[in-house]
Amino acid sequence: MNDRRVRFEALALPHMDAAYNLARWLARSSDDADDVVQDAMVRAYRAFDGVRGENVRAWLLTIVRNCWRRRAVDARRRGHEPLLGDDERRLAFEGPSPEDEALRASDRRRLDLVIAELPEDFREVLILREMEDMSYREIADVTGVPIGTVMSRLARARGLLKDHWLAGGCDVVR
């Protein structure tokens, strides 16, 4: 085995779940997320010798984000809009009773819908912070925007999420 492959497997592969999670939320499709992650991992492996610093997760998620953006731009140029398919089923939380489980699953589906409708810039910082537990600095590195912009987008995303959750709706005004 070559040294790059061993280092890549040790440092980058542990972040595959985070890469897939971000891709799935950006793409809103499991199939598209698979494609984005596959493309990102190939690109990451090819560029792995040039990795600087210790934060491989932020570096990898930056590649995932860039791969998604490139795919989205290409799709818009071709006039294609992604469709939500049957693969977008949500997992229900395990609960102590079927009623509790149904209520939690309903809330989770509603939350997923509200998050999915957030503008992309807000959605990605919310996912990176709340689901991937990244610091503001890491999010700024991944998204390529100043920390103040990350904080502003996160505050606006949380505000929109709260407003639409309390209003009982899923339609987010952009």
Please provide a written account of the structure.
The structure is a single chain. The chain has 174 residues and is mostly helical. It has 2 domains: 3-78, Rna Polymerase Sigma Factor, Chain: A (Orthogonal Bundle); 93-166, Arc Repressor Mutant, subunit A, CATH 1.10.10.10. Helices cover 70% and strands 0% of the residues. The protein has 8 helices and no strands. Helix 2 (16-27) crosses helix 3 (30-47), helix 4 (56-78) runs parallel beside helix 7 and helix 6 packs across helix 8 (147-166). It is globular. The protein starts with a helix and ends in an 8-residue tail after the last helix. The model is unreliable at 84-95 (pLDDT under 50).
What is the name of the CATH class of the largest domain? Mainly Alpha
Q: Strand share of the residues?
A: under 5%
* CATH homologous superfamily annotation of the largest domain: RNA polymerase sigma factor, region 2, helix turn helix motif
Shape: globular
Order of helices and strands: HHHHHHHH
Tell me the total number of β-strands. Answer: 0
Structural domains: how many: 2
In CATH terms, what is the architecture of the largest domain? Answer: Orthogonal Bundle
Question: Which topology of the largest domain does CATH recognise?
Answer: Rna Polymerase Sigma Factor, Chain: A
Alpha-carbon Rg, integer? 17 Å
Given the helix and strand composition, which structural class is it?
mainly alpha
Kindly report the oligomeric state of this protein: single chain
